[in-house]
Design brief:
Strands 1, 2, 3, 4, 5, 6, 19, 20, 21 and 22 form a ten-stranded mixed β-sheet that branches. This protein has a six-stranded parallel β-sheet with strand order 10-11-12-13-14-18, sandwiched between helices. The protein folds into three domains: about 80 residues, Urease, subunit C, domain 1 (Roll); about 280 residues, Metal-dependent hydrolases (TIM Barrel, Alpha-Beta Barrel); about 90 residues, no CATH class. Helix 8 links the parallel strand 13 and strand 14. The two termini are about 35 Å apart. The protein is globular, with a radius of gyration of 22 Å. Helix 2 crosses helix 4. It is an alpha/beta fold.
Length: about 475
């Protein structure tokens, strides 16, 4: 439908204001205006009385690869079923672009099901995405892990001055060509050994920019120490910083509260935010469970190493006291989907092996491409973080398989909850005419019935209609406008 009216719903505009029972008129992919719910209109009325209407959710912490990645699910139905209409991929530092000569080979070796990349620059990739189409609005970071690992062939060696300058130029160009920011996952497999000094030098080489710098805490067990490192980058470059996966582990909950307080204290001169899942769970990659001494490898080399007898014996010794048998398998290659929802303890019991042996077996079966949900998150601290003015809510892990209820509705007002998933990320990333229900804005709209998405519109196109998916390439490429 080129023109329609959503009639009778309770509308949240995404700016934190109280919801109103009004009609929304949409024409040619944009919001034409608002009417009183009692006014009659015969032009393609969609009766949504009793429903809740919000701006389409914005996911800031999505992965570029994997079962719900750019190439595996091009229509984005994984996101649309959650009410997500805009996605920013690559906060973990692994992105489809920019690529060096060796980058494509690196990505294919690490992520075998990724697309054959026939691009190098960010501009070329975004052009390919525009031609192919996307089911949701999609933007991307320029991922430092992809760039650095391709340059060093996955080894953790120091970079030369020339290499740092080259990376800086590539990042700068990528931002000008449309990347929404630069991502450094300092806890990840490829960057956990990278020094702060190198990050400083690369950012300096990239020059001044206004886009988002995205980080994950280098060590989730030391939130204050890790935050101090990130704030040093923020202060030195007056940067717009986003901290991903800020899930408060119960064992270190005091550190997370202190870190959040530090972010709040510097709100006057620091543009720093953090994103969290609204459930008391944390998502953990397989390689996060492994000791540091084996992490100086790529995923492919790690998977190969697991087959070596001496490596397995050393790993079994390291995991002798491993007590996380309650970790739930969350994401696996398609051939192992029957394992999703099971715990490591379940797998060990069914096989008649120890938990340590079970973990190594799962690592081998999945070629290290497995993720888990952990319930070791402090609920009270999570609630406190949700109330923090600098928190943004991410939903990419909000899935029924997690086995824990969302707590956001019990902590925040409905209007504040919506703002943290729509308006707040739109402002953070400078997404123009998105994130809010306003006249002249793009019609990215989610309609909820009984708490679940019932209708979802992307740029005015119904991609979920009365609960039935309608895969369409209705999305648009989200590009950085601040670096032009």
């Amino acid at each position: 439908m080129d023109e329609f009216v959503l009639k009778g719903g309770l509308v949240h505009r995404g700016d934190g204001s109280e919801p109103q029972e009004i009609d929304i008129s949409v024409k040619k992919g944009k919001i034409l205006g608002f009417l009183k719910a009692t006014k009659k209109n015969s032009k393609n009325i969609i009766d949504v009385k009793g429903s809740v209407i919000t701006p389409g959710f914005i996911e800031v912490n999505a992965g570029a690869y994997g079962p719900q990645g750019v190439f595996e699910d091009p229509f984005g139905m994984h996101w649309i079923r959650k009410g997500i209409t805009s996605v920013i991929v690559g906060s973990d530092g692994v992105t489809p672009a920019p690529l060096f000569a060796r980058s494509a080979a690196f990505l294919r070796s690490e992520y075998p099901r990724s697309s054959n990349a026939d691009w190098q620059s960010m501009r070329e990739f975004l052009s390919v995405l525009e031609r192919r189409g996307t089911g949701v609005n999609m933007g991307t970071f320029a991922g430092y892990a992809t760039l650095r690992s391709a340059m060093t062939e996955g080894y953790g060696r120091d970079l030369t001055v020339g290499e740092i300058e080259s990376l800086g130029r590539t990042i700068s160009e990528s931002l000008k060509e449309g990347a929404l920011g630069v991502s450094f996952d300092l806890s990840g497999l490829y960057l956990n050994r990278v020094s702060s000094d190198e990050v400083f030098k690369v950012i300096n080489a990239a020059g001044k920019f206004k886009s988002v710098l995205a980080f994950h805490l280098r060590d989730e067990r030391k939130p204050m120490e890790s935050l101090a490192e990130i704030l040093s980058f923020s202060e030195a470059h007056a940067a717009n910083v986003e901290i991903g996966h800020f899930q408060p582990l119960a064992e270190f909950k005091g550190g997370y509260l202190e870190a959040a307080s530090e972010i709040e204290k510097g709100s006057a001169d620091k543009n720093v935010h953090f994103d969290i899942f609204p459930r008391p769970v944390a998502r953990i990659s397989m390689h996060d469970l492994f000791p540091v001494w084996i992490k100086e490898n790529t995923l492919q080399r790690l998977a190969e190493a697991m087959k070596e007898t001496h490596v397995r014996e050393r790993m079994l010794e390291a995991f002798a006291g491993f007590g996380s048998d309650t970790l739930t398998i969350a994401a696996v290659p398609k051939s192992l989907q029957f394992l999703e929802g099971k715990t490591i303890g379940d797998f060990a019991s069914n096989r008649g092996i120890s938990v340590a042996e079970a973990l190594l077996t799962l690592a081998t079966l999945s070629a290290m491409r497995m993720e888990f949900f952990s319930s070791a998150v402090d609920r009270e601290v999570l609630e406190e973080l949700l109330r923090n003015n600098h928190s943004i809510v991410t939903l990419d892990c909000w899935d029924a398989k997690e086995g824990a209820d969302p707590i956001i509705e019990k902590v925040l007002s409905s209007e504040k909850s919506v703002e943290k998933i729509t308006g707040a990320p739109a402002r953070k990333f400078g997404l123009q005419e998105r994130g809010f229900l306003k006249e002249g804005y793009y019609a990215d709209i989610a309609v909820f019935k009984d708490g679940k998405p019932f209708y979802v519109f992307v740029n005015g196109v119904a991609v979920l209609e009365a609960g039935v998916p309608h895969p369409e390439f209705a999305g648009r490429v989200l590009k950085n406008k601040s670096e032009k």
